[in-house]
């Protein structure tokens, strides 16, 4: 019964970690690309997102660290065991969590309006968060090339996921001055980011599967196939945004804003399920190659 508890809790914790990390990295990228188009209201909103996600990330990192000891002991009481906590410190997962904690702390400090120092903290915190994804898991087991693929993949998906909330917020502002410019340029950059996202994702998946047929013949492949389908739907919605909804903002601002807001909300829901499947793939299933 307790083992079942960890079976369900671990994917949930992983989803939450993914969310706060990707949104934090993505918020930095959003500010980097579109800062000149953002007024103080939007900048403050982005800073609030980064602050709350960083704080949540610190708390989640602590919880996940103690969950490692719980997994090792196989019961809930194990999270308090000094011996198991010391043992968990030797695991790769604890090193990943340590990096996450440091990254989130640096990003939290960067929200304190420290001028030039904030930009240094942005860069360091973001870099450490990205690295935390490759010190454990399938990419670590598959070698340096897989790790490089994951780094690019994480940055690209962060750009996409991290832009949802700021863009949605802009859609809620009446006569938002630069919404069309931001949304248009978001689509321009997205061509590069999403192209790299798809390429790195397919190559990494092929490495883990060892071929195409395991997509059909293995549980891991089946879950991955569903994930690919959901991602394809999200990309299709993104294409509709770029070529139909965003241009309509110039013609009918209010209608365009409302449609873009609704579209983003659908993408957010679908992205949650993509992250759910990702957490299952990384915590509960073994690849066909036994990685």
Task: Characterise this structure.
The model has no long low-confidence stretch (mean pLDDT 87). This protein is globular. Helices cover 82% and strands 0% of the residues. The protein contains 12 helices and no strands. It is mainly alpha-helical and 291 residues long.
| Number of H- or I-type helical stretches | 12
Helix fraction, binned, reads over 70%
Largest sheet: none
Structural class: mainly alpha
Mean pLDDT: 87
Layout of secondary structure:
Layout: H1 2-34, H2 40-73, H3 82-88, H4 92-110, H5 116-132, H6 138-142, H7 144-161, H8 164-171, H9 179-209, H10 214-217, H11 219-251, H12 253-283
Helix pairs in contact: 1-2, 1-5, 1-7, 1-12, 2-3, 2-4, 2-8, 4-5, 7-9, 8-12, 9-11, 11-12
Give a quick rundown of the structure:
The protein has 291 residues and is mostly helical. It has twelve helices and no strands.
Overview features:
291 residues; 0% strand
